[in-house]
Amino acid sequence: MIRLSLLSLLLSATTAFAYPVTVKSCDREVTFDAAPTRAISNDVNLTEMMLVLGLRDTMVGYTGISGWKTLDEEMRAGVAELPELSAKYPTKEVLAGAEPDFFFAGWNYGMKVGGEVTPETLEPLGIQTYELTESCIHIGPKAKSSMDDMYADILNLGRIFGVEATAEDLVAGWKAQLAEVTAGVDRSSPLRVFVYDSGEEAPFTAGAYAMPTALIEAAGGVNIMNDLEKSWGEIGWEPVVERNPEVIVIVNYGDVTAEQKIAFMKDNPAFTNIDAVKNDRFVVLEYVEATPGPRNIKAVEKLVAGFWGQ
């Protein structure tokens, strides 16, 4: 018993010495004196980052998933017994009512610039916020999307919650898996790829700063809209037709299914001469695969198969 008590004391001391920890969140340095115990995450991909790190028991709820119908069977199991506090973006009142000490969100992932819910508005409520790295372009310098963005978020969450070893193991595994998946990719002549998220009158698509651009490049393609100085944005159909994608990536979520989006493009005479349409080359990514999160490696694997038939 004495030895066990001594071991417990040593472990407690080691844990105590791990804090405070400071991580970079967009343009801020955020310091945590202890691991959060009442966390909330917004959106399906951010919630999955929490779950893959084994942080389910530190959470008091999540927001922003069912409003876009992105909760698949795997995620339903992961968040079972956790309440969804808001179907879409949460209000400050909703968050305060759950009495959290941590909010994992991003700009246009639960927070809006100048909106009611921001790190600054939540701080007086005792809620510390960590911002999704991909979303930082909305408030700071523009940077092209990268797989490293997702890795950075996992590693930072690992430090915040005291599960750094788990985070490091996950990232190392993903990097090895990505290298294996892309080992045979021919990068000498990248395929022209268009990301079709939604919209019929005008398409909503991924620009230079959105995760699909990084996923497409990892798989040996090039986003035809990588000169769009946004993460996601609405464009006209003219540049899509002019740039003639060889493959179209469909983002599947919401009320309009991937099959309906593909049918729309196939049935529209304006798209008859697009190579991807002529050759029936569509790759479907689920929303949770196309946004930063643990399923990004699976997304690259799907793209490699769709691009090169591997």
Report on the architecture of this protein.
- This protein is an alpha/beta fold and 310 residues long.
- The protein has 2 domains: 161 residues, Nitrogenase molybdenum iron protein domain (Rossmann fold, 3-Layer(aba) Sandwich); 124 residues, Rossmann fold (3-Layer(aba) Sandwich).
- It is built from 13 helices and 14 strands.
- The strands form 4 sheets. Strands 3, 4, 5, 6, 7 and 8 form a 6-stranded parallel beta sheet that branches.
What's the quick description here?
The strands form four sheets. Strands 3, 4, 5, 6, 7 and 8 form a six-stranded parallel β-sheet that branches. A four-stranded parallel β-sheet has the order 11-9-13-14, with helices on both faces. A two-stranded antiparallel sheet has the order 1-2.
CATH fold type of the largest domain? Rossmann fold
| Level-1 CATH class name of the largest domain | Alpha Beta
Proportion of residues in helical segments: 25-40%
CATH architecture of the largest domain: 3-Layer(aba) Sandwich
Give me the strand/helix succession: HEEEHEHEHEEHEHHEEHEEHEHHEHH
Q: Mean of residue pLDDT?
A: 93
Number of strands: 14
How many individual helices? 13
- Morphology call: globular
Question: Helix/strand-derived class?
Answer: alpha/beta
Over all CA atoms, what is the radius of gyration? 21 Å
Would you spell out the secondary-structure blueprint of this structure?
Elements: H1 2-17, E1 21-25, E2 28-32, E3 39-42, H2 44-52, E4 59-63, H3 73-78, E5 84-86, H4 92-97, E6 102-107, E7 110-111, H5 119-122, E8 128-131, H6 147-160, H7 164-181, E9 191-196, E10 204-206, H8 211-218, E11 221-223, E12 232-234, H9 238-243, E13 247-252, H10 258-267, H11 275-278, E14 282-286, H12 287-290, H13 296-308
Parallel strand pairs: 3-4, 3-6, 4-5, 6-7, 6-8, 9-11, 9-13, 13-14
Antiparallel strand pairs: 1-2, 10-12
